[in-house]
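Hello,

I think I submitted the nickel (II) ion job twice by accident. Can you confirm which output corresponds to this input? Input:
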Amino acid sequence: MALLEIIVAPDPRLKKKAVAVERVDASIVKLMNDMLETMYEAPGVGLAAPQVGVSKRIIVVDPAGEDDPAAPLKMANPEIIWASDQLKPHEEGCLSLPEEYQEVMRPASIKVRYLDEQNEIRTLDADGLLAVIIQHEMDHLEGVLFVDHLSALKRNMIIKRLTKIKKFEQKSSKRHAVEV
Ligand code: NI
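Support: Only one job matched these inputs. Its output is below.
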């Protein structure tokens, strides 16, 4: 397994629509496992392939708390086939938007169909945190970030802040290069 680099917004690779997986073969399973390892290391509760620079419809999630046994889910081509009319707010964060947390409204319960790591079609009913994470990660496959659910004012504030941090980091790494 290998740790992958997580892309931080703003970045055009996070805005691209990802492509369906043809079949879940050994290379896709390896990517899923690397994504899970990267997610646990971060630490996070979900990760989508576009966040590691792979424009494929793959997500991994694990809603288990720190003290609970791991409950990883690896999904290719996830599709929401039913969503409740009832919406629920949840404070979300994202590994591609470090240190930013905002409340987002989404359907409280969903039914999702996907390909598992054996390339078998499965369906899963999800509510609570699991439903939030799956919907958040599936947004990444459409090039949508959780800030896209917020008002333009809030979104612009967050993106501005992240752009500033990125510029600062680029400058300080350049300085390092000169010093060495
Ligand atoms: Ni995210």
